[in-house]
Design a protein that fits this description.
Layout lengths: L2 H6 L10 E8 L14 E8 L4 E6 L2 H13 L3 E4 L2 H10 L9 E3 H9 L10 H7 L7 H8 L9 H29 L2 H20 L2 E2 L1 H25 L7 H11 L25 H6 L5 H32 L6 E4 L9 E4 L17 E2 L6 E6 L3 H10 L2 H8 L4 H11 L6 H4 L15 H13 L1 H17 L1 E3 L5 E3 L16 H31 L5 E6 L2 E6 L4 H24 L7 E8 L7 E6 L6
Parallel strand pairs: 1-4, 4-5
Antiparallel strand pairs: 1-2, 2-3, 6-9, 7-8, 10-14, 10-15, 11-12, 13-14, 15-16
Helix pairs in contact: 3-8, 4-7, 8-19, 9-12, 13-14, 13-18, 13-19, 15-17, 19-20
């Protein structure tokens, strides 16, 4: 299918065209990773709605070649359960992912349930039962859960398994399509599913780590850890893993006062009544002496270094020592706001929340190439300004007001001197229901709501609607449910779900719709122009790629077009959203991820009055 042409004028009507429902059974020598060479497709089942026929395809490259050609030329869409897994396999066998549009029954179910609780499973067997169909075939399912490789299973049973999965996925799709029409969810499902082939491609590219940078960072962390441990030993030569010895030091020799409950004034202790001296507790204690402050500082630094080593650097080190690329899997049906999450594969490093300081460990794998990151500048603030049609916020965006400096100035004027960098972490906390902090920080929270009253009033209306209807539907069509919401308590009208009610509409539209739309258009344009540059990651409000030097100018143009006009057009065409607040795009290109000078752009919207 010509998806590039489709994206010029996208429509949910595509889901009324013919479709192919398919499923792959693969070997599981390294489960879940289609980049592992030892794995292969054992059997594929496919149903075509235009012929009402189902076929089985056995074997590898030769057997799948005809099927893959069929998928690429098919003037319709593909249906599957967790179809990204199957797409990765088909790509490995030659499928051009830029030629397919999909419907994923797992993603569609996630859309129906909005901010579903984790107790509602989304695997095929569970979804099937919810739609009145039988669950998974028990024998084969038990074998797979037990680690038996499909290639070692009886062919007849494996074929039966594939035919069942294809059949039940087809029936689920038909039920979901009707439901999506009735609930006006087709547009949301389309957006999520257009992103799926793009993510399948990005997953298989992986990230290349710079061995020199990783080794330097690893050595730095090990050296700092040893220095901290030496300094701790000077304070007290104890077993720091022993809570008994820590308690004796902290509350005995050093004389810290225990934390107490604000109402009862009783000491806060463990369930067994023991004193608490874990790192989190120690950071909350009031340090009065030089030695107390030194201990708090050392233990805080030790905790940070331990986290850097265990969660990131040791895994990076293993990866480069094995000469590997770093891979992760994107998850489209987990988070409550529907933004992406990710799971690390072999080395357990997920790509969504990688510490900023370790981004420069990633480099381009081809000598002389660059790493580019394009992000939606102040995206959530711009989305909030749009949703609230806040004149002051829009003015500040159009006139380049430094909102972080305003934060610092406001907090400083309230009696707590601070810098712009220190204040950045607080700038948008009030946007998501933040109320806590020092007296100066609380004063800033109130000033923020007064300045951006359009946003604040809109969020209060969301809260009223959520309390009344126990749900809230946002402009993208996604519905968030609050079945246990209660009436406001106290004079300030606070409710327990307030932060989620304030956060979900903004974060979801920004990072589950606008960024995926932008990345989809960028990826397809790069494929259409047959560029050698490619994407390696997308993180909430940004996309990362390895860029050939000769293509830098083209990539810059594509990024601005994708984050701007292409996104505006899609929002208008699919969601009927005339996004009249200019979006922003920051582009940074350097030798490593996160390096280089950033150039910021304001992307004019065609809907400004």
């Amino acid at each position: 299918m010509n998806v590039y042409k489709f994206l010029k004028n996208p429509t949910t009507d595509i889901y009324f065209l013919p479709h192919i429902t398919f499923d792959c059974e693969t070997t599981n020598k390294s489960y879940g990773s289609s980049v592992v060479k030892d794995n292969r497709v054992v059997v594929t089942g496919a149903y075509r709605s235009d012929t009402n026929k189902t076929q089985l395809i056995h074997g590898g490259m030769a057997a799948l070649a005809s099927f893959i050609e069929q998928l690429e030329l098919f003037e319709g869409f593909l249906v599957g359960q967790n179809i990204k897994f199957d797409l990765r396999w088909m790509q490995r066998y030659g499928l051009d992912l830029s030629k397919v549009v999909v419907w994923d029954t797992m993603i569609a179910e996630h859309v129906f349930y909005g901010n579903r609780p984790s107790s509602i499973p989304l695997h095929l067997g569970a979804i099937a039962k919810r739609y009145g169909f039988q669950g998974k075939e028990p024998f084969i399912d038990l074998c797979m859960q037990g680690g038996v490789c499909p290639s070692d299973m009886p062919t007849s049973l494996l074929e039966r398994r594939v035919l069942y999965d294809v059949g039940v996925t087809e029936y689920i799709f038909r039920a979901q399509l009707q439901r999506a029409i009735e609930e006006d969810k087709l547009k949301t499902i389309l957006t999520r599913c257009l992103f799926t082939p793009v993510l399948a491609d990005i997953e298989q590219n992986g990230i290349c780590l710079d061995a020199d940078v990783v080794n330097r960072e690893y050595s730095r962390a090990i050296h700092e850890k040893l220095e901290i441990q030496s300094a701790l030993k000077e304070i007290a030569d104890i077993n720091w893993n022993s809570s008994k010895q820590r308690n004796e030091l902290v509350y005995g020799e050093l004389g810290f006062k225990e934390l107490v409950h604000p109402r009862t004034k009783e000491p806060i202790r463990t369930e067994k009544g023991q004193q608490k001296s874990d790192v989190a507790t120690l950071q909350q204690l009031t340090a009065r002496t030089k030695k107390q402050k030194e201990l708090q500082d050392l233990l805080k630094r030790h905790s940070i270094i331990e986290a850097q080593l265990s969660k990131t650097l040791s895994k990076f080190k293993d990866c480069i020592d094995n000469g590997d690329l770093l891979y992760a899997q994107f998850n489209q049906a987990i988070t409550q706001t529907h933004r992406l999450s990710s799971s690390g594969t072999e080395y357990g490093v997920q790509f969504q929340n990688m510490p900023r300081i370790f981004k420069p460990c990633a480099k381009a794998r081809i000598e002389g190439w660059h790493v580019m990151e394009a992000d939606g500048a102040q995206l959530e603030f711009r989305v909030a300004a749009f949703l609230g049609q806040d004149e002051q916020a829009i003015y500040d965006i159009l006139n380049g007001v430094d909102v972080h400096q305003r934060t610092a100035d406001t907090i400083t004027a309230a009696g707590q001197p601070t810098t712009r960098q220190e204040a950045k972490a607080r700038t948008f906390l009030p946007l998501f229901g933040g109320r806590s902090g020092t007296e100066a920080e609380k004063a800033y929270n109130e000033e923020f709501k007064t300045r951006y009253s359009g946003v604040a009033k809109t969020q209060e209306l969301w809260k009223i609607k959520a309390i009344k209807d126990k749900c809230l539907t946002i402009p993208s069509g996604l519905t968030f449910y609050f079945p246990n919401i209660s009436a406001p308590r106290g004079k300030d009208g606070y409710i327990a779900e307030e932060s989620n009610i304030f956060n979900y509409p903004i974060q979801s539209l920004a990072t589950a719709d606008i960024i995926p739309i932008s990345v989809v258009y960028m990826w397809h344009e790069m494929k259409h122009q047959k560029l050698e540059s490619f994407l390696i990651n997308t993180v909430h409000d940004s996309v990362v790629g390895e860029i050939k030097p000769e293509e830098m100018e083209k990539i810059n143009e594509i990024a601005l077009q994708s984050f701007g006009n292409s996104c505006y057009n899609y929002l208008n065409t699919i969601y009927n959203i005339q996004f009249n607040v200019p979006l922003g795009c920051g582009i940074k290109i350097g030798s490593h991820w996160g390096t280089g000078k950033e150039t910021s752009y304001t992307l004019e919207t065609p809907y400004r009055n």
